[in-house]
## 1
Amino acid sequence: MTENKINNIEKNVVVTLDYNLEVDGQEVDSGPIQFLFGHGNIIPGLENEIAGMAIGEEKDVHVSAKDAYGEYDPELEIEVPLTSFPEDFEIKLGQPMRMQDGEGHVFTAVAMAITSDTVKLNMNHPLAGKDLLFRTRVEDLRPGTETEISQGQIASSCSCCSSDGCEGCS
């Protein structure tokens, strides 16, 4: 039986990437993560820079805000009526909250201010407007399966650069 040996990161390869993420000189996240390369499973600025890397190779990757989670958009700061929240919903200022709109879309928002009638929410990704520094090391490479390639992602994990779960992946 012949094994398909993958030497470098390329489209349809499952990559195991160890990383440390720094923002403004402070580590904010670390991996490893595993994802199917070439399908937009990680931020574009990181995906573009790791193409061609081999197992064991290390690289510092600087990603500008526009190639990461986008620029900060003040229009994503919105006010909603306090009555939009269930009575038993605990609103915590400054803390990310998982929410759902009337159409069933789930999103994360941070309460910036509360009045007697409204809540001001920030719906920007927490890293929007931030330049990122990834210190990366390729740990493993393998061919993607037919199923993974057809689905555009690996089956058993969230394919995002966050150990905090899937908030803000897409």
## 2
Amino acid sequence: MSQRPPAPPSLQELRKEIDAIDEGMHRLLMQRGDIIDRLIQVKQTQEVGSAFRPAREAAMMRDLVQRHRGILPLDTVESIWRVIISTFTYVQAPFSVHADVSVSEPAMRDSARFHFGFTVPYVAHFSAQAAVEAVAKSKGDLALVSATSSRTPWWLSLEQEGAPKIIARLPFVERADHPAAMPVFAVSRVADSALVTEVETFSVRVSGWNAEVARALSPLAEIVAVPDTAFDGAALLVSVTGATSIDKIKSALIEAGASVRSVALVGSHATRYTVPPTGAKS
């Protein structure tokens, strides 16, 4: 005689399971807070700059994508973790996010809120230079500026010793239809041990800049260029990966007919981690 299959759980039973999971998640978050509190006591004032840890955060977000499965959208999971990480970072060392809204105010606000939540104060500026200057005057604030276009060479102020640097490129995880897809650089001061140097960013000033030089350089690196009419040249922000080097960039500029006036390292960040069009594994 065959046995009857077990009856499916009732809605009430399933809701009890959800309530138990919610309570467990809340307790774990409070436990995380207790650990952060102990971490603050250990750190005291040993570290300078913001508590932002771009190397650790980039690795955490990559791990999250790689282990994610099921029906819960990756956008939701990433945004939850971004709020958790950023809020606990803020609890360790309060900071503000200074955002350049000159390119697109809605897109920049989406990026700031997605990556830093609503607890971290958000300050809008009408130029990248103003956002970076605000960070330079602060102890550990962050600036968000467009990573793909600019009206002014705001990165020139990062050349000086002791100035803030580019420490991250957001979003950490790129994919189609990302809710905060606008590529932005995060600029701040952090401890050297917190940096990730998979991609180095250089401020390069050249003479003899033209369309042909730009075309010669484009296959080698990601570049933001602002014309400098006074010197018939340009101020470049060049992102260099391990596949090339700043020396190769300089050689390519010279071979294309430009003159390199100066080169300065102004930051670094993790390589772009791209999710295939099919999404995370399930």
## 3
Amino acid sequence: MKGFTNKNYEQLIESNNGRKFIKISKEWLAEEKKNRSIIDQKNDKIYKTLLSLPKERRIYINRVYHRNLKEDEIEIYDIEIIGKRANLLRADMVFKEKGKNVFYHIEQQTKNDKKMPVRMAGYQVGIMEIVGRNEEGKEALVLSSVLHTSEDNWTAATSIAEIQEDVDNGIPKIKGNMKTIGNYELNDIKDYSKEELLESESLVDKAMYLEKMKTGEEFIEGAKEVYKKIEEEEKEYMDKIIRIALSGILDVEEIETFIKELNVGGGKGMLAVKEVLEKDLKNRMAASFVNGEKRGEKRGEKRGKIQDAKNMLQENIDIDVIERVTGLKREEFI
């Protein structure tokens, strides 16, 4: 399995053997996770880790939702599966304003989703269903936001009104606002410069700063700058972020060497990591079969991939893993 290449992947697809595909995919991923400490849904885990810190969620919520809350006024609402009906949803992060039936819901996105307002409406109504009314009989207020951490342009609508059918009798559309079901605030990485993110007191912003690094050399230099800016007690959290970000790119020992050098200000260990990191950020995942370089070249081949993806979904394989293995987008097989 160690030498599994894009060519092997194409041969496996052409064989149209779904069971064999699933078996080999599982074996390959298990071996890669063991050897390279691969972490699925990296971005999701990075921002969940950071927003678990009281300071970070205070900064995020006050900035994005236009609040002025203290750290002890914001609680983590321990909920992932949302809704009581057939179409259950899995939320990325939900926080609660202490003593109030007010919730702050965050979805971390690296890809556009044209149905995001509809998804948000589902999350908001689902949370309202679960938490119920307060003592005064009022439903919960659920305020949503998207944390977009890709340099791609975010083109999805931010309100239900933008994508709903209009009427023809001269009645204007209702002007959306943040309190309207389906609306959300967009916190987009493209709205910040590298300098703004680096100088911010927020570790979330520091992580977004590293997201802007395009090459291995930029990432190394950027990480060195980040470690110069953060407090000593924050370094253990940034260490976790570096481990997540570089999992599957560098070996575990290489990652630990890199982190050690970051904590002491950089040195010879950086040189040992630099060449590998520079090469791998550009080539390793691009050359791997999980990137699906030739996806969609032939309709028949794509149909086969879609069926393989559906088979894997039935086997309860993580959706992000299926995307990586097949090169398909989740909306193509769900």
## 4
Amino acid sequence: MDISLSRKYRQLQEIFSQHKKVAVAFSGGVDSSFLLYAACVTLGSSLVHAFHARSELLPPFESEGVECAIQERGCSFHPIEIKPFSWPDFVANGSDRCYHCKKKIYQTFLADLLFSKGVLLFDGTNLDDLGQDRPGLLAASELNVQTPLADVGLAKKEIRSLSREFGLPTWDAYASSCLATRIAQREPITREKILLVSQCEALLRERGFMGVRVRLSKETATIVVLQEDLGEIQKKHVLSAIKGMFLFLGLHKVMIDLQGRPHGAG
């Protein structure tokens, strides 16, 4: 293991070692999976509690992955049902949507009696996140949610490298994000739009396009595939079949983002 990574990992363990018990906000993604692993290795699984927000904003296949990861870690699991479509600030889909959503989720987690005993909540914010426009970071800060990966200076690539070193299946996982990020800003978020996006992305995965995003603006869908898949999706017969499926679902226009996504992009 690289000396710098080894040092950062030891610092991460030192942070956990200062606590008798910890709680981790667990989405099942690369960062939170690594964070949960580190907490369990450091303290022992019996002293780690994983809190997970369940809703229609997470693709079904990702929810299944969460269950498997928890079983492998053997820690206490707290699946919490959230109802984002009942939150006006979320549905309005303004520039601060993520702030309100993250705050609601963490407030729901922190309402658990576990936190009245002095236990702290940790999340998977990494060093790269600090340099991006992520309103949810403010919510975490306001609620005293701990961000140890960022605190020890671990960036996304380093987390993937350490995850590979420790044999975590998420080391090369496609970056994930909630389905609400697919809806054009200031267009109200509805259950129907989220379901439509989920269906479209599922169809694309069935055709072999992994790590895909389908961005929705009114009745136009913009497909964002990995950069290495741009050539395949632009083949006439492939694109024609995809457009046919999307139009059948009620969309009026289908476009391809010609920039594509890097493998590890959010």
